[in-house]
Design a protein that fits this description.
The complex is a heterodimer of chains A (112) and B (111). By secondary structure, chain A is mainly β. Chain A is built from no helices and eleven strands. In chain B, strands 2, 4, 5, 9, 10 and 11 form a six-stranded mixed sheet that branches. A five-stranded antiparallel sheet of chain B has the order 1-3-8-7-6, with no helix packed on it. Classes of the chains: A mainly beta (112), B mainly beta (111).
């Protein structure tokens, strides 16, 4: 199993550009999450989803949007990139029965 | 609001020198306390889940324990390959299942 796969691994954006961070999981997990991790800080929840068609905001949702049209995919959209969005982004998923979350390898985003 | 505080921020050990990492937490209705390992440039890797005070879990040189207010990750006779950042997280009894993370402890084990 591939687990949680994120693309791209690295990206540099200019201020005001937009992009979509892709996340897909092959474990048939209902729950999916997007976190960001800034240097020396813990992971902060951006958005989460409890199943296809259902999404909700986390702690730091401003400047981001998500959609969940299938169980497998949970893309994160940045519409107008700002330097404050420079961070490492992690996607994760978990099942109904197990509480632990499994993480992807991350996307390192720099906004200049 | 759930909160997690980890200490120390960084720890340098000699190979074979045992120590403990601390995770203090406040949460409304603990569903689980989690320990993850994170290597540079990688995503967090799951280590343990603890569900109730008094519970202990072990994996190789690592042992995690839980009280009502804190958790400890004990590292016995560490090796250089144990060098990583160790993250603690809690899951409260909300429906979203999301984790609240501490800022981690960076462990360096020198040969």
């Amino acid at each position: 199993n591939a687990g949680v796969t994120q693309t791209p691994k690295f990206r540099i954006l200019k201020i005001g550009q937009s992009m979509t961070l892709q996340c897909t999981q092959d474990m048939n997990h209902n729950y999916m999450y997007w976190y960001r991790q800034d240097p020396g800080m813990g992971l902060k929840l951006i958005y989460y989803s409890v199943g296809a068609g259902i999404t909700d905001k986390g702690e730091v949702p401003n400047g981001y949007n998500v959609s969940r049209s299938t169980t497998e995919d949970f893309p994160l959209r940045l519409e107008l990139a700002a330097p404050s969005q420079t961070s490492v982004y992690f996607c994760a998923s978990s099942s109904l029965s197990d509480t632990e979350a499994f993480f992807g390898q991350g996307t390192r985003l720099t906004v200049v | 609001e759930d909160q997690v505080t980890q200490s120390p921020e960084a720890l340098r050990l000699q190979e074979g020198e045992s120590s403990s990492l601390n995770c203090s937490y406040t949460v409304s209705g603990l569903r689980g306390l989690f320990w993850y390992r994170q290597d540079p440039g990688k995503g967090p890797e799951f280590l343990f889940t603890l569900y109730s005070a008094g519970e202990e879990k072990e994996k190789e040189r690592l042992k995690a324990t839980l009280t009502k207010k804190e958790s400890f990750l004990h590292i016995t006779a560490p090796k250089p390959e144990d060098s990583a950042t160790y993250l603690c997280a809690v899951q409260g009894d909300t429906g979203r299942r999301a984790l609240t993370f501490g800022s981690g402890t960076r462990l360096q084990v020198q040969p």
